[in-house]
Amino acid sequence: MIVVTGATGNVGRPLVQALAAAGEQVTAVSRGSRGDAAMPEGVRHRRADLNDAESLRPVLDGADALFLHDGGGAAQAFSAAEVLDVAKAGGVGRVVLLSSIGVLTRPESVSHGQVLRAREEAVRQSGLEWTILRPGGFDSNAYAWAESVRTQRTVAAPFGDVGLPTVDPDDIAEVAAAVPGGKGHGGRAYELTGPALSTPRQNAEAIGAALGEPVRFVERTAEQAREQLLQFMPEAVAVTTLAVLGTPTAAELRISPDIELLLGRPARPFAAWAERNIAAFR
Ligand SMILES: NC(=O)c1ccc[n+]([C@@H]2O[C@H](COP(=O)([O-])OP(=O)(O)OC[C@H]3O[C@@H](n4cnc5c(N)ncnc54)[C@H](OP(=O)(O)O)[C@@H]3O)[C@@H](O)[C@H]2O)c1
Asked: Which of 30, 34, 123, 174 to probe ligand 1 with, by most ligand atoms within 8 A of CB?
């Protein structure tokens, strides 16, 4: 049995679906703050909080593998070491951790680098067979534009012509689904990016193409973007986020071959994510 934490999120939801479709026995875990989302047939949803490792004990008891992540943000406080101790006690043998490319590209940043680096260390020290997934920015971050596209057919964002190789969460999920059962992934870390650099202006165009209506792009200044980000994230996180979006490092611009190597097909471009998720923008 495979336990998937973060099971109602951008990655967890398609991961649960992929594992269930492959015939795996799956337990889906979240705190239930989005309601107890509908799960595929045969998948049990259990409420537990990663910040309270003991709440996972009944869920992890008897499991073989654990897919570990949360939504980031304030919940990043959870202790991976405590969760992994509970997992081991329950008989779990393998763990797949969703980390971030920021561990490599922004090692000095607490939010983008250090918290997840500590989580990776806990996984390495756990004695479990481990695999680490390090995605770049997600295509699904574009949900932040959904309301302005719905109401004004407008995307307002900074750094309109700076491209990044954002990754489709469904591709991350497909990799994660392949890893626990697959041989040769133990002790490996994979970098997961999209197939090409895509700019916010191009992404707005792709949403417009999927809608069948033009979407206007309005360039925000870095200061306007900072003020907006500060409404829902601490200053240090906003500063690093803007640095990634505006002045990405060479490592953040690198297009990784790992998705194609692991799945035997190219990573999906942003336009494909927009087409599949266009209902949120209508
Ligand atoms: N977005 C990016 O660009 C990016 C880039 C690199 C890495 N990442 C990493 O990707 C992860 C985010 O993935 P995502 O987009 O799939 O997240 P998401 O859509 O925000 O979903 C988060 C999931 O985790 C659950 N969750 C959150 N806190 C929890 C807790 N304390 N205990 C149990 N479950 C909890 C949520 O459900 P409940 O709220 O109901 O518990 C939900 O199921 C983060 O770890 C982040 O560091 C993101």
From this structure: 30
